[in-house]
Design brief:
Helices cover 30% and strands 21% of the residues. The chain is an alpha/beta fold. The longest helix has 17 residues. The protein starts with a helix and ends in a 16-residue tail after the last strand.
Length: 352
């Protein structure tokens, strides 16, 4: 089933591909979000949590960009900023050449036709009072699809995600398993024929056997619906399986980005190497003898000067405290933001 098959005869206005294949589907520049902390008798702003700070990247058409990092590093906040679920403090989001929520750019209503999101908590993401049929059909109906066609469309999408329409269309979320609910969420995300789907920890709450089926389903849906994915996960093995390129975040900043083989085969940032070293392995030669990271992550209210990773980095030098490293790309589009890039790389598990 293609996008044109879904849109033909539905009453939905087709949204054209405005740029050629070389133009990124999504381009993010200088994205920033600091959450205020209020206190005192007058409830004034006393501090700010620097959740996302000067994040810049792009997503090419048809690729899967994986985003990894520890909890609190800003990955989920970045996803919500891209969807404009929360407004950014600064920065630009450009979808296929059109600025998002800017004068003369793409309106949010049209953006949500082309960009959808699947959340980690499959139960909280569903309305408990709506059956599966209306959960999937509601958005197309809001965008002008006739009710009968929207319900038929819901049945088609349910079958596309591997659920028998006759058995599941009239069920409610509490009657479904976790894997079934997440498949319903995927069907709902596809209901408006989007071009980009953001998957925020979409498989992390599932059992491993169910996770494998859902990952294979995601790969099939990407091919069948000509999708582009932004795949956020803490599971590095899952990211490696799903992604074409990988972006690594630490404390609201991008520290490394590049092709998946380069990131996993020859990581250049000490933080990336530490993450890969922490992945469990059955190979005795690849087992870590000590904790790959020491200390706790810094407080995002008052992050370290210069490089934010320097307080936990075994290779930190005075320059790391005095000057913030900039993300620099090499000829293979492998970029790293580190003054001491490649230091100690011979000791990394991934490069051994």
């Amino acid at each position: 089933m293609s996008v044109s098959d879904v849109e033909s005869g539905t009453g939905l206005r087709p949204l054209p591909d405005r740029g050629g294949p070389a133009q990124p589907l999504l381009a993010v520049s200088g994205l920033r979000k600091h959450f205020p902390i209020r206190g005192g008798v007058l409830n004034r702003v006393v501090a700010r949590v620097q959740a996302v700070d000067d994040v810049t990247f792009s997503v090419q058409k048809g690729e899967t960009l994986g985003i990894v990092g520890e909890s609190g590093c800003g990955t989920s906040t970045t996803a919500r900023l891209l969807m404009h679920m929360i407004p950014p403090d600064a920065g630009d989001v450009v979808f296929d050449g059109e600025a998002v929520a800017r004068p003369g750019g793409i309106a949010l209503r049209d953006l949500y036709r082309q960009m959808q999101m699947v959340f980690q908590d499959s139960y909280a993401a569903l309305n408990p009072r709506l059956p599966v049929s209306m959960t999937i059909a509601l958005a197309p109906m809001v965008h002008g699809m006739p009710r009968a066609r929207a319900l038929a469309h819901a049945a088609e999408l349910l079958a596309a995600v591997g659920l028998e329409p006759g058995l599941f269309l009239n069920r409610y979320p509490h009657e479904l398993s976790g894997g079934q609910r997440q498949r319903v969420n995927m069907a709902r995300a596809l209901a408006l024929s989007p071009r980009l789907v953001i998957l925020d920890e979409a498989v992390s709450a599932l059992d491993k056997s169910v996770e494998a089926h859902v990952l294979n389903l995601l790969a099939d849906l990407k091919r069948d619906f000509a999708l582009t994915y932004l795949f956020i996960s803490h599971d590095l093995d899952v990211v490696r399986y799903m992604s074409d390129r990988v972006l690594v975040m630490y404390l609201g900043k991008i520290v490394e980005i590049g092709p998946v083989d380069a990131i996993y085969g020859a990581p250049r940032h000490p933080y990336t190497r530490a993450l890969l070293s922490a992945v469990p392995s059955m190979d005795p030669l690849h087992r870590t003898q000590s904790a790959p990271l020491s200390g706790d992550p810094p407080n995002p209210v008052n992050p370290p000067s210069g490089c934010r990773f320097r307080t936990r980095c075994p290779f930190a030098e005075p320059v790391c405290a005095g000057r913030e490293p900039r993300l620099a790309l090499d000829t293979s589009d492998h970029g790293v933001a580190c003054h001491m890039a490649d230091a100690g790389s011979g000791h990394s598990r991934a490069a051994s």
